[in-house]
From TrEMBL:
Species of origin: Gigaspora margarita
Name the UniProt record assigns to this protein: ATP synthase subunit d, mitochondrial
Stored PANTHER family: ATP SYNTHASE SUBUNIT D, MITOCHONDRIAL
Domain of life of the native organism: Eukaryota
One matching Pfam family: Mt_ATP-synt_D
Family according to the record: Belongs to the ATPase d subunit family.
GO biological process: proton motive force-driven ATP synthesis
Length: 168
């Protein structure tokens, strides 16, 4: 099942379309490299000749017991089957964590887009500064009234930094 999924992955689109982090992209590329190398090694091993001509060795060697023992060991050899369940579980856990992280990222991006849309809507609906009255400014920012009163009492008629920022 895992090899079917790995064979159907479009690696070139994977990193671009999902917007993955650099670390995740590097891990995927390393995995792809190991996978390609394993496929190459398996293909090379399948092409190698695997039968042994024991009669040839019986003619060459005087000690027939060694050849007989080697033939016996080879015929009795049964490759052990490896349970890949643990490795597949690790891959599935990695997949699950990656998907959870992707979902969290999507929700954060969606929330940020909503905030930006609300800000944009607010900016579009805001009246120009020249159309706002002093009373409306004081209503929106009551502390402005106190600041202006203190400046008038001290005889200050200029706002510090105004000329530098907006010119005269």
């Amino acid at each position: 099942m895992a090899s079917v999924r790995a064979a159907s992955i479009d690696w070139s689109k994977l990193t671009v379309t999902l917007g993955l982090k650099k670390e995740t992209i590097a891990a995927l590329q390393a995995f792809r490299k190991r996978n390609d190398e394993a496929k190459r090694v398996v293909a090379a091993l399948k092409q190698q000749k695997s039968d042994i001509d024991f009669e040839h060795y019986r003619r060459l060697l005087k000690n027939q017991a060694i050849v007989n023992e080697a033939e016996k060991v080879l015929t009795q050899f049964k490759p052990t089957k490896v349970d890949l369940g643990a490795q597949l579980k690790i891959v599935e856990n990695f997949e699950k964590k990656a998907m959870d992280y992707a979902r969290k990222t999507v929700s954060k991006v969606d929330a940020e887009l909503r905030d930006l849309q609300a800000t944009l809507t607010n900016m579009e609906q805001t009246r120009p500064f020249k159309d706002i009255s002093v009373d409306e400014l004081v209503k929106a920012k009551p502390e402005l009234n106190d600041i202006v009163e203190k400046m008038v009492k001290k005889g200050r008629w200029k706002v510090p930094g105004y000329e530098e920022k907006f010119g005269f």
